[in-house]
Design a protein that fits this description.
Layout (H helix, E strand, L loop, with lengths): L9 H8 L5 H13 L1 H19 L11 H14 L6 H7 L3 H23 L16 H4 L4 H9 L4 H4 L3 E6 L2 E6 L6 E5 L18 E5 L1 H6 L1 H12 L4 H13 L11 E4 L16 E7 L16 E2 L10 E7 L13
Parallel strand pairs: 1-3
Antiparallel strand pairs: 1-2, 3-4, 4-5, 5-6, 6-8, 7-8
Helix pairs in contact: 1-3, 3-6, 4-6
Length: 334
């Protein structure tokens, strides 16, 4: 990748997808992926190859493999595999000599894919772009109960079972279930991404979040505002101007003290590049220096989220990954 336009090397991108980067480098990768269509496409390609490797199974034949072939396969695989797959995938693949043979074929394809992608000069007009809003039907979830379940999955059941649940309709978010504890669970769509995100109009995006009472009264109105303007046909420029005016006129509130959100769903889909990502908590403040939280420093678990960076919202948002999904199962290390 170009060191000017693409600060993430391909090897670092693969390490990010495997959850093997230090926190500061992972933050750099996430911030760049949020706005770079080319790197999102490459990340999606690497993710697909990894999934194929993980799913690959070969049945051992009745006749043994000559020792000479075994030795040649092992030597070649050990020489080539580290260029394409992560140590975790390599360990999975090397469980038998026949798996080596099958994986080697996929590795060769992946090497060719990597070289082909590099030679395309990062064409900005690739078919995976989302330059315009799709039809409203593609953003809606036809099964209302499925959206309720997905919204609840944002937080542990002890919190979300008594939370208010909102679902997206053609005119905006509607109350599906009244809550008891002041929390509000919702499934946000792609237009809650940064305005310069290449996936701002991705109709596949589904981001479950469960806002605590402070965030429900101060951050959630931004979701309503953006959604209202999107469904009303506003352009990005109009949305940005309206949000700026809203904060200037005090129609949109500043983050309330203690405002935070649970995003711990293993069923969410953040983007084509990030997929389900990792479970995390989000904390909101009026504009503040990230050093006050030690964000993005080496080995710090706190990162500065790019959602509102450079946007019209005067908000600083910190992210802290957690070790479990909302259902209590262990999550990938980040």
């Amino acid at each position: 990748m170009s060191t000017n336009r693409h600060p993430i090397e391909e090897e670092k991108l693969m390490a990010y997808l495997d959850g093997e980067l230090p926190t500061d480098q992972a933050t750099e990768a996430l911030t760049h992926l949020e706005v770079c269509l080319e790197c999102q496409t490459l990340a999606a390609d690497f993710r697909r190859v990894s999934q194929e490797l993980m799913a690959w199974e070969v049945t051992s034949p009745g006749v043994g493999v000559p020792s000479e072939i075994n030795a040649a396969l092992e030597e070649r695989f050990q020489r080539e595999a580290p260029k394409v797959i992560s140590p975790r995938l390599e360990a999975r693949v090397m469980t038998s000599r026949w798996v080596w043979a099958g994986a080697l074929a996929i590795v060769c394809v992946a090497v060719g894919l990597k070289l082909t992608l590099t030679s395309r000069n990062r064409n900005e007009g690739r078919s995976t772009a989302y330059p315009n809003m799709a039809s409203i039907e593609q953003y809606l979830m036809p099964d209302r109960n499925a959206e309720i379940t997905l919204a609840r999955s944002a937080a542990p059941a002890a919190i979300s079972s008594d939370a208010k649940i909102l679902v997206l309709g053609r005119r905006g978010y509607e109350t599906a279930i009244e809550g008891k504890n002041g929390f509000v669970c919702i499934v946000e769509r792609s237009w809650m991404s940064p305005f310069n995100s290449a996936e701002f109009w991705n109709p596949k995006t589904r981001v479950p979040g469960c806002f605590n009472p402070a965030a429900a009264g101060s951050i959630l109105p931004l979701t309503f505002k953006r959604t209202e303007m999107v469904l009303g046909g506003a352009s990005k420029a109009q949305m940005i101007d309206s949000i700026k005016a809203g904060f200037d006129n005090k129609d949109l509130p500043a983050p309330g003290p203690g405002a935070m959100c649970y995003m711990m769903s293993r069923e969410g889909y953040l983007s084509d590049a990030l997929g389900h990502h990792v479970p995390h908590l989000m904390f909101y403040f009026p504009l503040t220096d990230k050093s006050s939280w030690g964000a993005d420093l080496p080995d710090s678990p706190v990162t500065l989220n790019p959602q509102f960076q450079g946007g019209p919202e005067p908000i600083t948002e910190f992210v802290i990954p957690v070790g479990k999904w909302s259902d209590g199962t262990a999550a990938p290390v980040m």
